[in-house]
Design a protein that fits this description.
Blueprint (H helix, E strand, L loop, with lengths): L5 H45 L4 H55 L9 H5 L2
Helix pairs in contact: 1-2
């Protein structure tokens, strides 16, 4: 098992934060796209209704619009959850940086090199 250092921890957390934020943004874009598709389908249903297309086609298009609207709403709710997750990841990153930066600074200023000390020694009571 590799040793977890402050530098590795901060890099891992920063990478995770970035990935979660990027994924959250992508989900938001796709949710908005689904909303546009649902609105377009509703407009198509209205247009074909005005052209006196058969009732079955009109009702199927309206039903598809409702399904897409529901999918859009679910995707937007999921996007909101993803945004909350991204904010939580950022807060966890800030907490890790705040907490561990002090530890890293104290270790780096310590007159004793503890990197070679057996870790079990620290666990002793």
């Amino acid at each position: 098992m590799t040793d977890l250092t402050y530098t590795r921890l901060t890099h891992a957390i920063a990478s995770l934060e970035k990935n979660i934020a990027r994924d959250s943004d992508e989900i938001q874009v796709r949710a908005q796209f689904m909303d546009v598709i649902a609105q377009d389908t509703a407009r198509v249903a209205e247009m074909i209704g005005a052209m006196k297309v058969d009732d079955d086609t009109i009702s199927e298009t309206k039903e598809l619009s409702k399904i897409l609207r529901g999918l859009s709403e679910a995707t937007l709710a999921y996007a909101s959850s993803a945004d909350t997750t991204a904010k939580s990841a950022h807060a966890a990153g800030e907490q890790a940086r705040t907490t561990h930066a002090g530890i890293d600074e104290a270790v780096s200023r310590a007159p004793v090199n503890v990197s070679e000390v057996d870790r079990e020694w620290f666990r002793q009571e």
